[in-house]
Design a protein that fits this description.
CATH superfamily of chain A: Pyruvate-ferredoxin oxidoreductase, PFOR, domain III
Number of strands of chain B: 22
CATH class of chain A: Alpha Beta
CATH superfamily of the largest domain in chain B: Thiamin diphosphate (ThDP)-binding fold, Pyr/PP domains
Strand content of chain A: 15-25%
Largest sheet of chain B: 7 strands, mixed
CATH topology of the largest domain in chain B: Rossmann fold
Number of helices of chain B: 20
Structural class of chain A: alpha/beta
CATH topology of chain A: Pyruvate-ferredoxin Oxidoreductase, domain 3
Helix content of chain B: 25-40%
Structural class of chain B: alpha/beta
Number of helices of chain A: 8
Radius of gyration of chain A: 16 Å
Bound molecules: thiamine diphosphate
Oligomer: heterodimer
Number of domains of chain B: 4
């Protein structure tokens, strides 16, 4: 690989984006890369939009990803994918869990949840993967494993061998949940 | 050598471990909280949550005076609370190394202001070191401890959200135990009465000048000569942005933000054709450069407010065309909200229903300001709610407090609300204070506090008795309710507002995110009974929605079964048992 690899992970507070970025970081480090992550949390625990930026290369300076430069956008939620789309570079890859979580302005009726998100995503990224990660996570044993299912899908787009993913998962998740998460990863990787 | 991916905060905690630090005291605050959470994981380091930042710094000062290395951590606004001991211990100096971490928040990702605490360091005469990534966070913190002992001064480590919460690789070292430096009574150094303080102030100036002389040659600041057409002076996270955006530019990287190195500034300025100073928030380095007669550009290009991003640098100096984010007009915002099942929700529903003026405070409950609850009038700083309500009454008359309440969480009450309540009693207003007691400091990610029954290491600790505390202060009416019980809470609220004197209402229930076992009942909407009146939506619950058929619905994966919506539904359309 040449240049810096920019991977943007977005979702809603509480969906497990940070753990996902940690696992990915371990894999990239094991692959011999320098890694930087920037995450903004705090208020985000309370169901707000969250964004984790991960960059890896031989040498990385800034931990933040510039608009229009993300190689891959991994979104845990449909609306958040739309929100973060301007960060994706032309020809970048998009993986989206098709879950829809209603933000408060939609619940209170002051805004509408767009009905055409899938079309809008596909019009910009024709080969976007819009996937039912939630069902796969349930199949693995818990809805909480959506993040690792999505990592499984992401893993197909990155040049790291399967083993290093499995090792990173073992290292990063709680010991009790290792088996479920390995299963979730396998289901995502397909 | 082992390397590990760490956030800046984890690296500071690691530095405490490696530098032989004995004590860490702190009050939580984003983005500083994880320093103490991680320090608490090392058995060799005593770590505690103090009730506020002033106490935390005083504890660290005590540890330093007795001869130990110690650290106090806080967010930027916390240093205002701790400013009193800070400004005076600068005169006294230290015995064991003393380091204060100030985690600033340019851009206010989760803060009420974005003050630049480099200026507090300068005002207090306390050196400020500023790491640019996690490896430097570890290295600079360790260095700060030895410099603190060498120059007899406390040191500030200034992080920003981007250095505190970004992760990069760090090389780990071993812990070097530091035995206590023997304590000798020295009242001229540590009893700051005027006769002692006057010579200590002069002494501080001397210590600062000898440190200034050290700063000029030390490796904490460095010049990276590249192309000399463009030179940039920068520090902290911005250094990495400059490397990214202007790979050819020469850089004066500042690691000691106070005091700044005059000789290096001049040398660097003389060596480059065009000089820029790029710094977030205040033009501190820029003003310093100008005071030396150096021509430079800074704040005319970059705002004094908010963060600076690498692409802004690339476009404003590098001439790179900036990719503009297309306007996200039709994308609904996703603001943070009170969680489903939050015990604060019901109270704010009632405050809104009774159209009360709400003198608010800082915590998860500040989210009640947002629609649909819209039940907060003021939020200034932690603990302000009670004083503000008292001032309103004293200025506008006693009737004010019949329709005004002060509201704050228990952690905030213990932090700095108690003294406000004492003032209400002493100066005899009839303010009603509502303490939202979820027994945890929730906003910052669930830290224990003196009401939790646990300490920072997770061990059992005594829990404060709020009822007794308020009565001891002199409050005659103290009521406690379960905020899930709206009827009882409403009755108690009315009783307090009508009471002729100060009153306290404690709404007590643990944070919903910490309740492990889910109740067996499930909430469902009976479509036959639901009239679509949307009363339940006024709760602002993320588990409630409204469907195309004009009926409310409950998102089963989100619902925490608090039952508030069922309580306020006038048509009995929300059923607690049906879906069991
Ligand atoms: C001086 C200061 N210190 C720390 C913070 C960070 N902070 C914001 S809210 C909060 C605590 C809130 O706890 P509590 O009052 O119990 O309310 P909860 O969030 O649990 O509802 C803290 C520590 C701050 N804003 N100001």
């Amino acid at each position: 690989m040449t240049g810096v690899n920019n991977i943007l992970i977005v979702g809603v507070g509480g969906q497990g984006t940070i753990l996902a970025s940690r696992i990915l970081a371990e894999v990239a480090i094991a692959g011999g890369y320098q890694v930087k992550i920037s995450e903004i949390h705090g208020m985000s625990q309370r169901g707000g939009s969250v964004m984790t930026q991960l960059r890896f290369a031989d040498e990385v300076f800034s931990p933040v990803i510039e608009p229009s430069t993300a190689d891959i956008l991994l979104s845990f939620e449909m609306l958040e994918a739309l929100r973060a789309l301007p960060y994706l570079k032309e020809g970048g890859e998009l993986i989206v869990s098709k879950q829809e979580l209603l933000p408060m302005p939609v619940i209170t009726g002051t805004a509408q949840y767009p009905a055409d998100i899938a079309e809008r995503l596909l019009s910009v990224v024709p080969d976007a993967q819009i996937v039912d990660a939630l069902s796969l996570a349930k199949k693995a044993g818990t809805v909480k494993a959506v993040n690792v299912v999505l990592l499984g899908m992401l893993s197909r787009h990155l040049p790291f061998d399967e083993n290093s993913w499995l090792q990173a998962i073992r290292k990063c998740v709680k010991p009790k949940t290792v088996e479920i998460n390995l299963k979730a990863f396998a289901l995502g990787r397909g | 050598m082992t390397t590990q991916l760490m956030t800046g905060n984890e690296a500071v905690a690691r530095a405490c471990y490696e530098a032989g630090v004995k004590l860490v005291s702190a009050y939580p605050g984003t983005p500083s909280t994880e320093i103490t959470e991680n320090a608490a994981k090392y058995d060799e380091v005593y770590a505690e949550w103090a009730p506020n930042e002033k106490v935390a710094l005083e504890v660290a000062i005590g540890a330093s005076i007795i001869g130990a290395r110690s650290l106090a951590a806080m967010k930027h606004v916390g240093l205002n609370v701790a400013a009193d001991p800070l400004f005076t211990i600068a005169y006294g100096g230290v015995n064991g190394g003393l380091v204060i971490v100030s985690a600033d928040d340019p851009g206010m990702h989760s803060s009420q202001n974005e003050q630049d605490n480099r200026l507090i360091g300068r005002a207090a005469g306390v050196p400020v070191l500023e790491p640019s990534d996690s490896a430097e966070a570890l290295e600079f913190t360790k260095t700060a401890f030895s410099l603190s002992e060498r120059f007899d001064m406390p040191f500030i480590i200034r992080l920003t959200t981007r250095t505190a919460h970004s992760s990069s690789l760090v090389s780990l070292g071993e812990r070097k135990e530091k035995p206590l430096i023997p304590y000798k009574k020295n009242e001229k150094k540590f009893v700051m009465m005027p006769a002692h303080a006057r010579p200590r102030h002069l002494d501080l100036e001397e210590r600062l000048s000898s440190f200034m002389a050290y700063v000029e040659g030390c490796g904490l600041n460095r010049i990276e000569w590249r192309d000399k057409k463009i030179g940039v002076i920068c520090s902290g996270a911005v250094y990495n942005y400059v490397k990214e955006a202007l790979p050819c530019a020469s850089i004066l990287k500042i690691g000691v933000s106070y005091p700044l190195p005059a000789r290096m500034f001049k040398e660097f300025a003389a060596g480059v054709k065009k000089l820029y100073v790029i710094e977030e928030l205040e033009p501190m380095m820029e003003d310093f450069a100008r005071s030396l007669g150096i021509k430079c550009q800074g704040k005319e290009l970059f705002s004094i407010a908010g963060e600076i991003m690498p692409w802004e640098i690339a476009s404003k100096i590098g001439g790179k065309e900036q990719e503009m984010l297309p306007a996200a007009a039709e994308i609904p915002a996703r603001p943070p909200v009170m969680c489903a099942g939050c015990p604060h929700r019901g109270l704010f529903y009632l405050l809104g229903k009774h159209k009360l003026v709400v003198s608010g405070d800082i915590g998860c409950y500040t989210l009640a300001c947002s629609p649909p609850l819209s039940a907060m009038d003021t939020t200034i700083c932690m603990g302000a709610s009670i004083g503000v309500a008292h001032g309103m009454e004293k200025a506008a008359g006693e009737d004010t407090s019949r329709h005004t309440v002060a509201v704050l969480g228990e952690s905030t009450f213990l932090h700095s609300g108690m003294t406000g309540l004492l003032n209400v009693v002493y100066n005899q207003s009839r303010v009603t204070t509502i303490i939202l007691d979820n027994s945890i400091t929730a906003m910052t990610g669930h830290q224990h506090n003196p009401a939790s029954g646990k300490n920072a290491k997770g061990q059992t600790a005594p829990a404060v008795d709020f009822e007794q505390l308020c009565r001891a202060i002199g409050v005659k009416k103290v009521l406690v309710t379960d905020p899930y019980d709206l009827q009882a809470t409403e009755a108690a609220l009315t009783e307090c507002l009508e009471f002729d004197g100060p009153a306290v209402l404690i709404t007590r229930r643990p944070c919903a995110l910490l309740v492990k076992e889910l109740p067996s009942a499930a909430l469902t909407v009976d479509n036959k009974k639901c009239t679509g009146c949307k009363t339940c939506l006024k709760l602002g619950c993320p588990a409630l929605g409204f469907n195309e058929e004009g009926k409310a619905f409950i998102e089963q994966t989100q619902c925490a079964f608090c039952g508030l919506c069922a309580e306020i539904c006038r048509f009995d359309a929300i059923n607690k048992e049906a879906a069991q």
